[in-house]
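input
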Amino acid sequence: MIYRYFFFALLFLSFNNLRSQSDTLPHPGKVTFDSIRFVNGSRQAAKIIEISDKYVKYKNPLNLDGPVFSVRKKDVAGFILKDGCMDLKQQGFENCVKDPTYGIIEEKKFKRAIISIDLLQLMGKHLQINADYIFKNRKNGIGVSGNLGFLDPYDRYTFDVLETRMLFSGGSYKKKYIGFDFKIFPSPHKTITYYCSFGIDFGQAYLQKVIITPSGWQATSGGYFYLNRTEKTVTDETTYIGYRFNNGFIWRITPHIICQGLITIGANQFSYYVAGEEKRVNTIHPKITGGLTIGYAF
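output
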């Protein structure tokens, strides 16, 4: 009889021991460690060590003597701690969720119209004024530019300037022209915003060409002959049309002070009459240029 009571007592103690152990083991729906939730939806159990301006450092909670891991803060959607949430409102986190609108310029602070001047063109003795307008949807915009050059197109020095050199041959100098661009903003407008654009410009230009003319055979003292040639540099006034694709950025230093930079690839099509001939010639030359503007937004 005593063995029966002993058996039931042992069974009771074993049951209580198993119950207390089950309360300490992780199970679905219960957070037992700190965790990091990433923007791609995944979650990583972690012992968070440090949160800096750019990185989050953590350890594997099951191996605290192991290495320290580091992830970029912009890849983190939120933090969930054993004792609740940890918000980083200065980084756009609230209730352990990253606000998708964080950093986007509010509508009431957004300035759509920009007037600017190109600093790189000024260095090349050109005056270029740009006017841009961003549509209400904030995904597209238009740009208009006007450019006037101050160099003498008949001065040889003009074609020694880097901007006048054409790829592969000769040189060109754009005296005055206007341009139009259609801009595309693939991401929301923040302090720095990327854009791409397609554009066209047209106006007056000058082409410099080197004409080589044979002038007869010349004998040497060794009995050899060579062909004499004369070189003549000519400048033709032309009209042109330029086609371009731009990659650039808008940096809103303040709500009103704007800096823009861009890199342009494209081609210029020149059209001119050949001297002494009644025919018009069209030539196409590739181009690579850049721009840096400072302006005012309103």
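quick obs: Confidence is low (pLDDT under 50) at residues 12-31.
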